[in-house]
Specification:
Blueprint (H helix, E strand, L loop, with lengths): L11 E6 L3 H12 L3 E6 L4 H11 L3 E3 L10 E3 L1 H5 L16 E7 L7 E6 H14 L7 E3 L8 H11 L3 E3 L10 H9 L4 E4 L1 H5 L11 E4 L6 H8 L3 E6 L9 E4 L10 E2 L3 E6 L12 E7 L5 E2 L3 H7 E3 L7 E11 L5 E6 L3 E4 L2 E4 H8 L5 E11 L2 E10 L5 H9 L10 E5 L12 H6 L15 H14 L17 H15 L5 H6 L3 H12 L1
């Protein structure tokens, strides 16, 4: 059907959906036709989906998504399922042809599309076979969000080994008890997951789970020690611009895990500020080279030239400047230290703070905004400081941002400043922002009628690190997320000694309704 519609090499096809059999099948269909896929996450705001479709030049979208302002042809999944099997068996596309486009957070406030060719995926599959060595009997959980390239890693890991890709509904993948139950009940043998999700998830009593692969953010010693016992525990590293995965460490000893050595087909070089190889133990920026380096950013030659550069070593190849600061030890293992710019990682999601700041300043009344990552009880959260002439309720701020941004880009804490503090040279004094909180905004608290509601509100405010909460709002409307929900549940249990689950929090339409649910269990 795609070939009959004139779709072929270099054409970008949108795939609408989530972690479903139909969406996975659609991705494979696009690749079989020699085209490239653009994942359109069903959880994304309509404005962002429209921007991605328009910017990429997508003419065809597979799936039954919402009506976009962009003029595209929509082909329902059911029509793909009716195709004769013979039509899906085509010759492999050229290795240099485009395989997919992934939009990542952009520092200018506009997401940027990374163009990844087939040769990158081919090398990833070869490295997976060499390092992870799965078998057809393995069962790989499809955990990653539909809009990010780890989904490609999971698909390649399962299908490249002839193994099973295990699909589960979004609620069953929430970090904590739901994820632990899914790992155990679905006989998962391999999981790829950010370490922050493992940090709040009980270790399942499942001897079948033999391989854990973490990535997307720094892994702590505590997480590695909890989860590597009796299992293979891999710590991986790799940006979208270098096809997902570039270095690996099999964690076998105590201590903070390194990000290991480069995989086959990948070069990883640490350069100092003068673009000279950094000496052993010195801090420098990591440059990635080899066959997995992406083409660049779609429609943005300036940014492509800035980040995809000729090999500073003079070997004639292109390298990707990661912006990540690392050191290389005497054993040549790479150790991640942090970022050299304004990009952060939260729960495995890559976030350009400038994009969130730009969205905040679109809200009427906000004159200027600064966003950063703050750690509350080991959980990282986005926090926003803004300048405005009057107080804006934080629920209003959050609801407006949800209209424009994916949920992982929406701050959980908002602090208003009548005037943002500045250094003597006129720049915003970021150090002072993080040590002073003059007016943390929160919904005014109505009269709280019962002791139980009052206690729940206090626990919720403490977990969310805000001054007060509204009992008529639910946990998530006030800035919570799935990781913080786990903390919320644990603290309720500790304080009230009552049986409460994550599903109770997700199902409750307000804190007051949650208190009604729990009150019946206390009597």
């Amino acid at each position: 059907m795609l070939l009959e519609a004139g779709i072929g090499s270099e054409e970008i096809i949108g795939v609408w959906g989530d972690r479903t059999r139909q969406a996975i099948t659609a991705i494979l269909t696009v690749l079989a036709a020699g085209a490239a896929f653009l994942p359109l996450d069903s959880a994304y705001p309509l404005e962002r989906l429209d921007m991605m479709v328009q910017d990429s030049g997508t003419r065809v979208v597979l799936g039954d998504g919402p009506e976009l302002r962009s003029r595209v042809r929509t082909i329902p999944f059911e029509q793909l399922a009716s195709l004769p099997a013979a039509k899906a068996v085509l010759r492999p596309p050229p290795l240099d042809s485009l395989a997919y486009v992934i939009y990542t957070s952009g520092s200018t406030g506009r997401p940027k599309g990374v163009m990844v060719p087939h040769r990158g995926i081919s090398n990833v599959i070869a490295a997976q076979r060499e390092i992870l060595n799965l078998s057809p009997s393995d069962r790989v959980l499809q955990f990653a969000s539909f809009s990010f390239d780890p989904i490609v890693f999971e698909m390649a890991l399962a299908f490249g080994a002839g193994a099973t890709l295990v699909l589960a509904p979004r609620p069953h993948l929430r970090p904590g008890e739901p994820l632990a139950a899914t790992l155990e009940n679905r006989d998962v043998t391999v999981v790829v997951v950010p370490p922050s999700s493992l940090a709040v998830t009980p270790v399942p009593h499942n001897p079948i789970l033999t391989t854990i692969f973490v990535g997307g953010e720094a892994c702590s010693e505590h997480v590695a020690e909890r989860w590597r016992q009796q299992r293979r525990f891999f710590n991986g590293y790799g940006p979208t611009e270098a096809t997902i995965w570039n270095t690996t460490e099999l964690v076998e000893d105590p201590g903070t895990p390194s990000i290991g050595h480069p995989n086959s087909g990948v070069t990883a070089t640490v350069f100092d500020d003068d673009l000279q190889p950094a000496p052993c133990g010195a801090t420098g920026e990591l440059y990635l080279g080899g066959v997995q380096v992406a083409r660049g950013y779609l429609g943005d030659p300036r940014l492509t030239a800035e980040r995809f550069v000729p090999d500073p070593g003079g070997h004639g190849a292109r390298m990707y400047r990661t912006g990540d600061l690392v050191t290389a030890g005497e054993d040549h293992r790479l150790h991640f230290l942090g970022r050299s710019d304004n990009q952060v990682k939260v729960r495995g999601f890559r976030i350009e703070l400038g994009e969130v700041e730009a969205a905040l300043t679109r809200i009427p009344g906000i004159l200027e905004a600064v966003v950063a990552v703050t750690e509350f009880d080991t959980v990282k959260r986005l926090t926003a400081h803004y300048q405005s002439e009057s107080i804006i309720d934080h629920v209003t701020l959050r609801n407006q941002l949800i209209e424009w941004l994916p949920l992982h880009l929406v701050p959980g804490v908002f602090t208003r400043w009548p005037e943002l503090p500045r250094t003597p040279n006129g720049k915003i004094d970021r150090d002072l922002l993080w040590t002073a909180t003059p007016s943390t905004t929160a919904s005014p608290s109505p009269d709280i009628e019962t002791t139980l509601v009052r206690l729940l509100c206090r626990i919720c405010a403490r977990v969310l690190a805000i001054a007060s909460v509204d009992p008529e709002q639910d946990f998530f409307e006030q800035g919570g997320d799935s990781l913080l929900a786990t903390q919320f549940v644990n603290q309720i249990r500790d304080v009230l000694n009552v049986k409460v689950t994550l599903m109770d929090v997700f199902d409750a339409e307000s804190l007051r309704q949650l208190s009604d649910t729990l009150s019946s269990r206390l009597t």
